[in-house]
TrEMBL record:
Gene3D superfamilies reported in the protein's UniProt record: NADP-dependent oxidoreductase domain (3.20.20.100)
Ranges where the NADP-dependent oxidoreductase domain occurs: 18-167
UniProt organism field: Streptomyces yunnanensis
Entries under Pfam families matching the protein: Aldo_ket_red
Superkingdom in the source lineage: Bacteria
Name this protein carries in UniProt: Aldo/keto reductase
């Protein structure tokens, strides 16, 4: 059994919720899992407890609230009462309190004027902050797929989260990268409080990976490192995050991701890549 490394979080968005990946994760030193109230058709927490209720005390568990079932679909809401109920339900279904509860994609319900959006976000943050203060979860955060509307809403009046999770990696896009960094700066978060997610954009077999060799962003020597591993390792720098939630049902794949942590990113080449992304954006017609 390897020593625990907090840099990898096993993300369960696409998971089959099998016991095998949970035991393998612990063997590989991955002792954090990220799930959500709405994953697995709103049954992720019970599926997790069914797969390994005896294993759950050994994991740090983060989950998310913000999507709710309605007429066979999912609707988004930042209603403080619904968020609170979802946290309470999560504890019942998991059989324990989660270590962290993220507000899930709050941008989905932040339409309208800035003042109204800020008010709605502030009340939602206060609801999960209160849940944490009352011991319903260890801490709280924000997980945002598209953080671009968020930085301008954050001022001294909003509660400060314990963690923020954003898209990370070569596919995140320069506007998302910059918004994520701006959001982290607004809340003065250190890299360990900024989490990355979805380093492969949901699939490690996208055609792009056949055209771009991400090993160019890894310091030499990198013999034996695969393109998939390099893609994962580089994601810790786009933006600078302390841990990444990555999905896999395969113990072999998870082992490859753990091994990739031994390599270091080539920051000069990454900075050139970022400059090219900015130049490309600036050339786009308004
Ligand atoms: N808005 C949000 O809050 C939000 C949105 C999306 C994601 N997330 C978080 O990010 C986590 C990960 O997202 P994701 O699953 O959508 O995307 P991802 O981690 O970018 O991609 C997962 C895919 O990568 C493959 N993979 C992983 N390691 C591999 C390896 N070594 N070799 C080959 N293939 C590999 C997996 O296939 P195999 O199973 O075959 O290994 C899986 O299909 C989620 O579980 C969640 O925690 C949050």
């Amino acid at each position: 059994m390897r020593e625990c490394d907090p840099r990898i979080v096993l993300g369960l968005h696409r998971s089959r919720y099998e016991r095998r990946i949970l035991t393998s994760a612990l063997d590989l030193g991955v002792d954090a899992i990220d799930t959500s109230f709405n994953y697995h058709g709103f049954s992720a927490h019970t599926a997790l407890a069914t797969a390994g209720s005896d294993l759950l005390p050994r994991f740090k568990i983060s989950t998310k609230v913000g999507f709710f079932p309605t007429a066979g679909q999912a609707e988004h809401s930042l209603d403080p009462d619904r968020l609170r109920e979802a946290v309470e339900r999560s504890i019942r279904d998991l059989g324990r309190a989660p270590d962290l509860v993220f507000l899930h994609n709050p941008e989905r319900s932040l339409t309208g004027s800035s003042a109204a959006a800020q008010d709605r976000l502030g009340m939602a943050c206060a609801a999960v902050e209160r849940a944490a203060a009352e011991g319903l979860c260890g801490g709280w955060g924000i997980s945002s797929w598209d953080p671009r509307p968020l930085p301008r809403l954050v001022d001294g009046t909003l509660p400060r989260p314990d963690a923020v999770m954003v898209r990370a990696g070569l596919l995140a896009g320069i506007d998302v990268l910059e918004a994520s960094e701006a959001l982290a700066a607004r809340w003065d978060l250190n890299p360990s409080q900024l989490w990355g997610m979805s380093p492969f954009g949901g699939s490690a077999t996208q055609p792009l990976w056949g055209k771009l060799d991400p090993r160019v962003f890894i310091q030499s020597p990198h013999d034996g490192l695969s393109a998939v591993q390099a893609t994962f390792r580089v994601a810790y720098w786009l933006p600078r995050v302390g841990r990444i939630s990555v999905g896999t049902d395969s113990p072999t794949h998870l082992g490859e991701l753990v091994d990739a942590l031994r390599y270091e990113a080539n920051l000069d080449n990454l900075s050139t890549y970022r400059r090219l992304l900015c130049e490309q954006r600036d050339r786009q017609p308004l």
